[in-house]
Amino acid sequence: AELALRQAQKMEAVGQLTGGVAHDFNNLLQALSINLHVLESRCQDERLALPIRMALQAVERGSTLTQHLLAFSRRQPLRPELVDVAALVAGVAALMARTLGGVVRVEHRADPGLWPVMIDPNQLEMALINLAINARDAMPDGGVLCLEAGNHAGNAPRQPGVPSGDGLCITVRDTGTGMTPEVLSRATEPFFTTKEVGRGTGLGLAMVQSLANRSGGGLVIDSQLGHGTTVRLFLPRANPDAVAAPPPGASTGSEAD
Ligand code: ADP
Question: Of 16, 26, 9, whose CA–CA distance to 190 is shortest?
Answer without folding.
Answer: 9
